Amino acid sequence: MSDTFTVSDAEGAAQLVAFGMRPRLHPSQDHEYRSLVRRYREDDSFRFLTDRIAFSLGLHVVKVSPATGAVLTAAEGSVFETKIEDYARTSRHRGDGEKALHGIIHLAVAALAFPRPADLDDDGYIGRVKASLVDETVREICRKLRRRSERTESGEDAPSDTPELERAWRAYARRPETSETKDKRAALNSTRAMTSRALRFLMDQGLLVSVEDVDVEEKVYRTTPRYQVQVRDLASTTAFTELLSLGVIPPITDPAGTLRAGVPGARDPEPKNVPKADADV
């Protein structure tokens, strides 16, 4: 690996990082992006330079492939870090309980999208989610957390090592499942609106895509390879592991394209504009 880099090398590496910061842009949509992805995968020196430029910006290159593009995560304290309290603030929700609630919604989306370890390991797997199923699942999670909290208070159970999950059920219980404003829009304080916003946020980040060719009343979202990569990283966290241990995450995908509990996952046609992964987030 060469230790000598040209200005052109640095510009290319910085451009690849910049492409990675546009999560809805896919390499299939831009010739230069495709070329830089190929170079990153084939040129060790260029890969090293790209990784170091990203690191200096407070970013970590998780994966680069034709299917995912450049997937970046922000280091703790980075100017690019999206904190759950900032996310909650934009939703006009405050307090530790509210932050925990938003966090558990996103954990539930990830777990519903990839309910089994084999789904995360399979590059061809595509999960599907919708707001009502996320909402129902989080409500069941919170019911279990409430019962566990009651046992803990009575000395029947050991304290949890993920207190953010314990706080979430109280915040969720205070909110109606659905409610409307005077102009018939979903009220921001309803849990259905919160789950819908979480799904739109993930779509804006290039992690989910809206399914347009299914005749259903409620919008359905499909996972992208970028999301699979990020959920693989999330799966190692204590909160995610404990969430799955509650036993309320159902397999949700079936070959007919419906979403319901108790149906095993299956491979599915690729979303539009997202080519198949050629390699392993």
Key features of this structure:
281 residues; mainly alpha; 3-stranded antiparallel beta sheet; two-stranded antiparallel ribbon
In which order are the strands of the major sheet placed?
A: 3-5-4
Major β-sheet, in short?
3 strands, antiparallel
Tell me the radius of gyration.
20 Å
Proportion in helices: 40-55%
How confident is the prediction overall: mean pLDDT?
77
Order of helices and strands: HHHEEHHHEHHHEEHH
Pick out the low-confidence regions.
252-281
DSSP E strands, number:
5
CA-CA gap between termini:
24 Å
Count every helix, treating DSSP H or I runs of 4 or more residues as helices: 11
- Residues in β-strands, percent: 5-15%
Query: How would the global form be characterised?
Result: elongated
How would you classify the helix and strand content by structural class? mainly alpha
Give an overview in words:
With 281 residues, the chain is mainly α. It contains 11 helices and 5 strands, in the order αααββαααβαααββαα. It is 48% helix and 7% strand. Strands 3-5-4 form a 3-stranded antiparallel sheet. A two-stranded antiparallel ribbon has the order 1-2. The longest helix is centred in the middle third of the chain and has 23 residues. The protein starts with 6 loop residues before the first helix and ends in a 36-residue tail after the last helix.
